[in-house]
Amino acid sequence: SRTSAGRAAGTPRARACRSGSPGSFATATAAVLTAWDDPYGDPLLAEHGGHLAAGTVRLDNRGEVERWAECRGEELSDLGVVLRLVALHGARYVPRILGDFAFVVWDTASRTGVAATDAFAVRPLYYSERSGLIAWSSRAEPLAASERYEPRYLAELLTSYTAPAGLSVYVGVHALPAASLAKVERGAVRIQRYWSPADVEVQPAWSEREAEAIDTCRALLLESTRIRLAGGQETWAQLSGGLDSSSVVSLAGWLADQGNVPRSLAGTVTYVDRQGTQTDEREYSDAVVRRYGLTNVPIVDPPMWYDETYPPVAPDQPGLDFHVQPREQRLCRAVRAAGGRVLLTGYGGDEVFASNFLWCADSIAEGRGMRALREIAHLAAARRVSFWELAYRNGLIPLLPGAIRAQLIHDDSPPGSWLDPLAVRRYGSGRRAAVLRRSMGRLGRKHQYAIVNGVQTLQGVVHGGILSDALELRHPLLYRPLVEFALSLPHQVRAKPHARRWILRQAMRGVLPDKVRARVGKPDTSDVLVWSLENSRARLGGLLEQPLLADMGLIDPPKLRAAFDGTRVAEANTLARHIALFPTLAIEAWLQIRSGRWPPPGRLSCNRRIGRDSAGAVEVQSRMVKVVQ
Questions:
Q1: What is the pTM of this model?
Q2: Pick from 69, 407, 465, 476: most CB atoms within 10 A?
């Protein structure tokens, strides 16, 4: 990245900080450095009346924020509007800001600051406190004082497959949690949550107003997609054959056909895997493409784990999807080469519109046991499953005391035997705890507790790795008003016996081709994942020779090697344990790429980006903002 530095005393010195040029300046109480190497995007720096602001902001409700900030009609960036808001009202209106954002606003006179992340931390924000200084950054690595990694963070990733809130992978570098507001006063950081999915109350009346609920859901989906579409050739979208991404693409096409936006998407990208049974989803994605006349770029049978054309890179934080990095690199190349900079996803739909059968336990707890049993019987007949199994798992077990429930609930995907038991007990909560949380919650509220718990898993884990380094990711299904509406729905509207996520399917009627809208389920990709281990065995084996996770006391190398060798036989009863290797291998690969140990030295520098090849591949871009107070 190109960088520059500047220093001034007293109040901030105004300077041009246009799109595509780095900027920095300093005051007596703060220094700001912004750097990026892409030719687009709003400024990362703003200044007004003794206040500095740094960060990345995309507002969903800009009109409201302008009104609160009393700056309507002024030509300001979204960051500039937020700066005016905080300068005028402090943190009062921050909980009402909608969009994707991570920003810091610093009052140079009072030496106080306000920092915030959006509801799902789509834009990450990190901070560290050292030697009387507080430093903030949109990436964690620039704040790390050393190459020491946080064992609790890694253990949680290994065992529960989620990153612990408030931590980063680097020792001493903290993540500002999703939906959080931080106030900096007298050299200290005080953090508070300003929004939580648990605060949303279920509205039983929606079950009597299903038609209105469908219309409301559709209106929110259209609005969310509309405000996330950029102009020109900038906006692309992921398109699988599934309900979520197909809905987002169809909503964009519908808006364009109705004249509500100047144009639809510039194009879509579809991953095509043909190794597994019925994993080629093009018959569904093609239905959407034909309906709206869209450009589609299929990425057919991309390598998994390792790619000679696009060698692996290590993003700012480790993720669990390292095995799909080659296809993501191809997506970045295709979109950037076509002039795209924004990528819409269908992320979050499973959690936001999910349902579960714990309403059975809620009904029994509320004295409506016979009605619950009749509903279970109807559901079992419709789905052709065991009445007794449904009643046992969703009506009886959730009502038992926690100690008994823990003995009866089994985890279908336990963490691997190669994980160090002491480290798991000391740091990691484990998958078993995640399974137990599903049936927790107070009596009569277990169904909603499980829904809320699922939505909360989205907070802070939507960072897109190399995709977000190359493109601006936008997630229409994480529009906060849409999420709040979905959380308010009772189970009768969320799902029907023959239709999971019923409300979404009904809202998409006439917009999404029925071939996709009415499909039930998607093919199992487990065989593709297991195939990927065998196909990449030679290179992945190098990760196990001297694993860095073992040096941290988190895994047992011989047991890990034995489990890896055992994947040569993909028996049905061992698939879950084979797939349990993926988090360990992904994290180990991230560590070894950063250390320069993998791939072997001489073939790739430890943090090399996607390079230009003879076909004109576009380099991965990044945007970073750092504030030191």
A1: 0.86
A2: 476
Strand partners, 237: 268, 344
For residues 239 and 207, is the Cβ–Cβ distance under 8 A?
Answer: no
99-107 β-sheet, strand order: 45-48, 51-59, 99-107, 112-117, 180-185, 188-193
Q: Is 23 helix (H, G, I), strand (E, B) or coil?
A: strand
pLDDT of res. 425: 76
| Nearest residue to 590 (alpha-carbon basis) of 305, 318, 307, 303 | 318
Residues 513 and 246: their CA atoms lie apart, in Å, by: 9
Question: Helices in 140-183 by DSSP H: which ranges?
Answer: 151-160
567-571 CB contacts, 8 Å cutoff, 24+ apart: 567/530, 567/533, 567/534, 568/534, 570/527, 570/530, 570/531, 570/534
Averaged over 588-602, what is the pLDDT?
85
* C-alpha to C-alpha distances, 396 to 374, 382, 443, 454, nearest whole angstrom: 15, 21, 12, 22
Q: Encode pLDDT of 237-283 as tens digits.
A: 999 888 999 999 999 999 999 999 988 899 999 998 877 555 678 88
On whether the CB atoms of residues 322 and 305 are closer than 8 A, the answer is: yes
Radius of gyration of the chain measured on its C-alpha atoms: 25
Q: Give, as one character, the DSSP assignment of residue 393.
A: I
For residue range 134-159, what is the model confidence (pLDDT) as tens digits? 999 999 999 998 889 999 999 988 88
What was the pLDDT predicted at 454? 87
Closest CA to 106 of 182, 204, 23, 19: 182
Residues in CB range of 262: below 8 A, 6 or more apart: 231, 256
Whole-angstrom Cα distance, residue 418 to residue 241? 36
